[in-house]
Amino acid sequence: MDVFLLLFAALFSVLNPIGTIPIFVGLTAGYTKFELSKTSLWTAINVFIILIITFFIGQYVLSFFGITISALRIAGGLLITNSGFSLLNGQFSKNKGINKKAQAQAQDRSDIALTPLAMPMLAGPGSMSLLIAFYQEQNTTLDIIWSCFAILAVAIVIFLILRSAYYLSRILGSSGIVAISRIIGFLTIAIGIQFIISAILSIARGI
Question: Which of 76, 146, 180, 200 counts the most CB atoms within 10 A of its CB?
Answer without folding.
Answer: 76
